[in-house]
Amino acid sequence: MTGALLASPLIHLFALAGGSVWLNFGSRRVWDNIVYLAIAPLVGYFLAARHPRARFSAYVFLSCELIRAHRIDSWPLAALSVLAILYLQTPGARRIHPRVKSREVLSRLGVPDRKTSE
Questions:
Q1: What is the rounded distance in angstroms from the CA atom of residue 76 to the CA atom of residue 65?
Q2: How many domains does the chain have?
Q3: Is 55:89 a contact under the CB 8 Å cutoff?
Q4: Would 46 disulfide with which of 54, 75, 79, 96, CB 3.0-4.6 Å?
Q5: DSSP string covering 35-52
Q6: Considering only CA atoms, which of 1, 87, 84, 7 is closest in space to residue 41?
Q7: Rounded to two decimals, what is the model's pTM?
Q8: In sequence order, what are the beta bridge partners of 22?
Q9: SS3 state of residue 111
């Protein structure tokens, strides 16, 4: 999944150059270009670098891909997105990309912990 996200700009540019649309790669819509040329590789970088927000970023990206798949009526894109989301649920993926720890995020934002403030 990480490799596909990192390679998405190349795949998108090849599809554009070839004039074909495959899994929404090659779409000439401006937003699709932003997604596949900038956002997808950023999510791939987060996953590769094991950034603390990598898992969350992947969930958001893949959820948007599901919406995009519905919009363009692409069942293969929807299936790949669902499979990637299911992969993120496996123990191995959870070890590599742990969940965001909400208490740490809230403490960085200066929000007091309810359990300790009572």
A1: 11
A2: 1
A3: no
A4: 54
A5: IIIIIHHHHHHHHHTT-T
A6: 7
A7: 0.82
A8: 25
A9: coil
